[in-house]
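ok so i was messing around last nite and threw this chain in just to see what happens. nothing serious, just curious
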Amino acid sequence: MPRSTVPAVLVLLVASLAGCQPSGNATANTQRPVHCTVVADGPKKTDSGENIVGRARFRCASPGAQPLTLTIRIEQRVGDSDRWRTVATNAVTLRGKQTVAAELKYNSRQATLSCRTGSFRTVVDWSRSSRGGKDGDNLVSGSVKDPCKKLFTS
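result:
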């Protein structure tokens, strides 16, 4: 292919792909349950430094889930054991457009706890219903020791 046609072919290829949405049988596409992605972020100190937040990030394909339920818990390790206890909870139910995020973005909800010492983790139980299909999971973040502790002291 001559050099002068390569840029033209690339421009045509990009233009033909811009704004494309998956095609196919429209009836089949509207009957499949929407896909949702949920992520549990480890607990961290808020900007004010007074609280710990455990955040769940989520996004569903358009037109969204009917409903998406999230139960976000911050758990604290009991002593040196493998046991954890819930110290903060936030449960939310979202529907339709509330569950849809912009491309490559996430929506989020969080549980909040006042600062204290110890090891913490975020646990997210989620479920979604869409077009007769159900999905869900239990997600557990990694643990974080003393998230409010200052890294450097002067």
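not much to say yet. Strands lie at 36-45, 51-60, 68-77, 84-94, 107-114, 119-130, 133-140, 144-145.
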